[in-house]
Design goal:
The complex is a heterodimer.
Chain A (H helix, E strand, L loop, with lengths): L2 E12 L2 E12 L3 E5 L6 H8 L7 E6 L2 E2 L7 H5 L2 E4 L11 H13 L3 H14 L15 H13 L5 E5 L7 H16 L3 E5 L3 H7 L2 E6 L2 E6 L1 H6 L4 H12 L4
Parallel strand pairs in A: 3-8, 3-9, 6-7, 7-8
Antiparallel strand pairs in A: 1-2, 1-4, 4-5, 9-10
Helix pairs in contact in A: 3-4, 3-5, 5-6
Chain B lengths: L4 H5 L4 H34 L6 H8 L2 H40 L7 H15 L3 H16 L6 H29 L2 H9 L4 H16 L1 H14 L11 H12 L3 H32 L6
The chains are: A alpha/beta, B mainly alpha.
C-alpha cells in the first residue's frame, strides 16, 4: 500500500508537557487507522497537528512523501487536501446548511455561488440531508449537524479525512447515522485517521488501531489483535476500563 | 387537540384545574400591575400641581403657547441634525471596521498599521467629543483659509464626529470579533480558507450580528451628539432652540427640541430589539424569548 500520510518523531509541547512524545505513524492510501486512548492522551492534538492547526515542535509530517510541517510553508494549500471533522461540529451558524458546505469551494476554489451550492445540495443528498439544505444548523439534530460538517469537509475533495471524536458530542441514538457515513467513506476508499471512543465501531472499520497513552503510540496493529490480544499491559488496562464502563 | 379531549380528560382533571389556576394567576398579576400603576400615576398627577412653584415650572418648561409658536421653527433645523447623522453613521461604520481589523493584523511587516490602530483608539477615546469638534471644526478651516464658506465648519465638525465615534465603534467591533469562538476560525482554516477569507466569510458576519445592540447604543448617542456641532455656529436644532429661549425668556423650546430627539432615539432602540429578535428566531429554533 502506498503511504499517504507519515508522521516521524512528532513532538508537540504545551509548556513543559509533551502532548505528543515522538509519535511515528504511517497511514497508507485508502487505509483507515483509528486512534484510541483516554481523554488527554493526545488524539485530538495529533489530528490538529496533521491539519497544521497546531505547529509541531519537532519531527516531520509527510503527505505523499512531501514534508508539510516544514516551518514557513504556507499551510492553506495543504489544508485543502486534508479534511478535518470536529467533535463539536463547528458549523457556521450564520450560514445555511448548503452555504456551509459551499463556502470553501466558493472562497478557495473560486466556484460561483450557484455552482457550489448546487454541488453542495447534491452532496448533502448523498448523506441523507436532501431536505435540509436551506435550514440553519441550529435547527438540525446533532447527528444531522455532524453529517453536514462531514459534507463540508468532503466538498473540498480531500485526500485524507481526519475525524476527531465525531460522535462524542452526540446523543446515543444519533451515533449510528454518523457512523454510517464513515462506513460509506470507507467503501469509497477514503484514507482516514479517526480518533474515537466507539470501540466496537473502531474494531469493525479499522485496518489498523493505534493505542495512544500520554502522547505516545503504545501499541498498534490490526483491530483483532489490539482488542483481542493486546500485547501491552497499558492497552489491556485501558480496554478493561472501557469494558467496565459498558462502552464496548 | 381533538374536540373530545376535554371529555376524555374529565371536567376536573389535573390539567383543567392547572389551566384554570394559571389563568387566575395571570389575571391577578395583570390586575395588580394595572392598579398600582394607576394609583401611582394618579397620585403624581394630583400632587405635582399642588406643589409650590409648580406654576412657575409649568410656565418656564411646558408653556403650550411657546411650544405651539416654536415647534414648527425647530423642524427644519432638526432635519439638519438628522442629515448630519445620516451621513456620519455609515462613515463611522466603515472607518471603525477598518480600525478593528487593523488591530487584528498579525503580519509583522504590517505592525505599524496595528500600532496606529491601537494609538488611534486610545487617543481618540481619551479626549472629549466636544474638544474634537472644536479642534477640527474651527482648526482645519482655519488652516485652509476658507472661512468665507460657512458649510466648511459643518463638514469638519462632522469629520470630528466620525473620528471620535469610529474609535468607540471600533472597540465594539473588536469585542465582537474576539467574541467569535476560536473553533469557528479553526473550522474555516481547516477547510483551507486563508486568514483574510476566514475573517470576511466567517468571523466578521458573526461579529457584526453580535454587536448590533451595543452598536445601536453608540448610534443613539451619536444622534444626540450631533447637536454638539452647534458650537461651530450652524443653526441646527439646539442652536435654534437656544435662540428661541433667548427670544421668549422661556425654556419650553429646549423641551421641544428634547422631544424631537426622543422621537428618533426611542424608535431606533425599539427597532434594534426587533431586528435582534428576528435574527435570533431565524438562526435558532431553540431561542428563548
Amino acid at each position: 500500500m502506498n503511504e499517504k500520510l507519515r508522521l516521524e518523531g512528532v513532538i508537540k509541547d504545551f509548556g513543559d508537557h509533551h502532548v505528543l512524545d515522538a509519535v511515528d505513524l504511517d497511514v497508507g492510501d485508502g487505509e483507515v487507522v483509528t486512534l484510541i486512548g483516554a481523554s488527554g492522551s493526545g488524539k485530538s492534538t495529533l489530528l490538529r497537528c496533521v491539519n497544521l492547526l497546531e505547529p509541531i515542535d519537532d519531527g516531520r509530517i509527510l503527505l505523499d512523501g512531501d514534508d508539510i510541517s516544514e516551518p514557513g510553508r504556507n499551510p492553506d494549500p495543504i489544508r485543502r487536501r486534508i479534511g478535518l471533522v470536529f467533535q463539536s461540529f463547528n458549523l457556521f451558524p450564520h450560514l445555511t446548511v448548503a452555504e456551509n458546505v459551499a463556502l470553501a469551494p466558493r472562497k478557495v476554489r473560486g466556484r460561483s455561488r450557484r455552482e457550489a451550492e448546487a454541488e453542495a445540495v447534491e452532496l448533502l443528498g448523498r448523506l441523507g440531508l436532501a431536505g435540509k439544505a436551506g435550514e440553519y444548523p441550529d435547527r438540525l439534530s446533532g447527528g444531522q449537524q455532524q453529517r453536514v460538517a462531514i459534507a463540508r469537509s468532503l466538498a473540498m475533495d480531500p485526500e485524507v479525512m481526519l475525524l476527531d471524536e465525531i460522535t462524542s458530542a452526540l446523543d446515543p441514538e444519533l451515533v449510528g447515522e454518523v457512523l454510517d457515513v464513515v462506513r460509506g467513506l470507507r467503501e469509497a476508499g477514503m484514507t482516514m485517521l479517526f480518533a474515537t471512543h466507539e470501540m466496537s465501531f473502531a474494531r469493525e472499520i479499522s485496518d489498523r488501531v493505534c493505542f495512544l497513552d500520554d502522547g505516545r503510540i503504545v501499541e498498534s496493529g490490526p483491530p483483532d489483535t489490539i482488542f483481542g490480544h493486546p500485547a501491552e499491559e497499558r492497552t489491556r488496562r485501558f480496554l478493561q476500563r472501557v469494558l467496565e464502563a459498558g462502552r464496548m | 387537540m381533538t374536540a373530545s379531549a376535554p371529555e376524555l380528560a374529565g371536567p376536573t382533571s389535573t390539567r383543567t384545574r392547572r389551566d384554570r389556576y394559571e389563568r387566575r394567576q395571570r389575571r391577578r398579576s395583570i390586575g395588580a400591575a394595572t392598579t398600582s400603576t394607576v394609583v401611582v400615576v394618579g397620585l403624581l398627577v394630583w400632587l405635582i400641581p399642588k406643589t409650590s412653584g409648580w406654576e412657575n415650572v409649568q410656565q418656564s418648561f411646558f408653556s403650550p403657547t411657546v411650544f405651539r409658536d416654536v415647534f414648527p421653527e425647530l423642524l427644519g433645523p432638526f432635519w439638519y441634525d438628522v442629515q448630519i447623522f445620516l451621513w456620519c453613521a455609515p462613515c463611522i461604520v466603515v472607518v471603525a471596521l477598518l480600525i478593528a481589523m487593523a488591530r487584528n493584523v498579525r503580519a509583522p511587516a504590517l505592525y505599524p498599521i496595528r500600532l496606529f490602530a491601537i494609538v488611534y483608539t486610545d487617543v481618540v477615546r481619551g479626549v472629549p467629543v466636544l474638544l474634537w469638534i472644536l479642534l477640527l471644526g474651527f482648526g482645519v478651516p482655519g488652516i485652509l483659509q476658507t472661512r468665507e464658506w460657512y458649510g466648511e465648519f459643518v463638514i469638519w465638525g462632522s469629520v470630528a464626529l466620525v473620528v471620535a465615534y469610529s474609535a468607540y465603534v471600533a472597540e465594539v467591533f473588536r469585542a465582537g470579533i474576539e467574541g467569535v469562538h476560536e473553533s469557528q476560525r479553526a473550522a474555516a482554516r481547516s477547510l483551507g480558507l486563508t486568514a483574510g477569507q476566514t475573517m470576511r466569510g466567517v468571523v466578521l458576519p458573526q461579529a457584526v450580528r453580535r454587536v448590533v445592540p451595543p452598536l445601536m447604543n453608540d448610534f443613539v448617542s451619536l444622534q444626540k451628539d450631533v447637536a454638539l456641532i452647534s458650537v461651530l455656529g450652524p443653526v441646527e436644532v439646539l442652536r435654534r432652540a437656544q435662540i428661541e429661549v433667548a427670544r421668549t425668556f422661556n425654556f419650553t423650546p429646549y423641551v421641544a427640541a428634547a422631544l424631537l430627539f426622543l422621537c428618533v432615539s426611542i424608535p431606533l432602540t425599539r427597532l434594534t430589539d426587533h431586528l435582534l429578535q428576528r435574527e435570533r428566531s431565524v438562526m435558532s429554533a431553540t431561542a428563548v424569548r
